[in-house]
TrEMBL record:
The lineage of its organism: Eukaryota, Fungi, Dikarya, Ascomycota, Pezizomycotina. Its cofactor is Zn(2+); pyridoxal 5'-phosphate. This is D-serine dehydratase. It is an enzyme of class 4 (lyase). Catalyzes the conversion of D-serine to pyruvate and ammonia. May play a role in D-serine detoxification. The keyword Lyase applies. It comes from the Eukaryota. Keywords: Detoxification, Lyase, Metal-binding, Pyridoxal phosphate, Zinc. One of its GO terms (biological process) is response to toxic substance. PANTHER family: D-SERINE DEHYDRATASE, ZGC:162816-RELATED.
Amino acid sequence: MDTIPIANYPLPTKSSLQWQYVGKNLNDVFTPAVVIDRSVVKRNCDAMLEVSKALGVGFRAHVKSHKTLELSKMQVGEDGPANFVVSTLIEAENLLSFLLECQAKDRPCSVIYGVPIPQSAVSRLLCIANKVQPGTLSVLIDNLDAFLEFEDQLEKTPNARAIGVYLKIDVGYQRAGTKTDSPKFGELVRTVIDKAGENFKGFYTHFGHSYGGSSEDDAANGLLEELTGLEVATRAVPKSFKGRLVLTVGATPTATAAQNLLSKSSEKAREFKSILDDLKQKYSIELHAGVYPLLDLQQVATHARPPVGEAKQGFEPLSRSNIGLKMLVEVTSVYEERAKPEALVSAGSLALGREPCKSYPGWGVVTADLGNSGGNCIYDDRGNKTGWIVGRISQEHAILTWEGPKEKAMPLSIGDKILIWPNHACVAGAGFGWYLVVDSTSDTNTIVDVWVRWRGW
């Protein structure tokens, strides 16, 4: 079987879901459910586009966090290049109609398959590539043998359209990628350029360990490390290569840090601008990021931007008020007699995920929405540390624990619907077929749309 069609992963129709949900109050729907605030994610998307424009760099939107067409379009805006990163082929297949729409309007667009591709999936990738203009699709390469196998499949495929190649560079994350000081690096670069020719696009890195940062400086240093790391990689490119290389860097914390560096006049900002201006003379620079429209507690914990401040030129503060995804759950039991007041809710690790957040000892924080969590008593890891958190988690349910003085515990009752900020939005959305969409510019609790989430791999 050469291809795996989307039909293998059937999705509910948007119109059917809209008929069921639009106009309903969140208090009246089944739980658990994922809720996206359209106005918040739109604001986050616009801020990233504004920053990229102000810096004079390109932007590439990763879609793996949400896997929806609606938010993918929001990430790239209504005009200008529509460039994406995907982590699964099903994402690229579901973007195909939009790519064709862009190309029919002469709007530049492209997709990078954002991890080294399994050899068994190359034929499926070629099926997508042959439906779009040559060079629209690109792959990441970090291993010589894998590249040669990939090229062999291309050569054996009649009329295969050109596919771009980026070299994935490891600047410290130690997930995918090759290091520039590897003894095999020079041979890899030369071989890729020799075989791919003008389809060699440049170098790509993902600073995923920036999620472990705790300050604006940590995020800024990560961004500078990425840029300088890829500049080192370019030194292995033979002088005979005449194309203009693309250096694509990012992760949400480091891309977010670009907002700081653009809006400040500190020594770090001057260093960043100097390095960026120098690189832009020789290369095309591109930022990429994925979870930034949704955000989550992990991202807020990086403190990559100040939590408060004026939203000037799209430079949004990085705070919980900008988290665009929440989990709607229901209280199914309460345990006031325990050492800490506790309550059972209708969502566990399959809904919320089990990834920890370095800033507090839990798996989610209860918000003040829906009027159930007691006004200002929201757990703040840098402040009062008083409020309801997801203190323990199992597969299908979780235990909320009250943190702080017991006498200040805000009561919860069986049947209460509450909203929870998750630690990691990408994982929290993975178990759901669709998102319930609200818009806080009008009414935070009334459903205005439903976005279908792509299934499969």
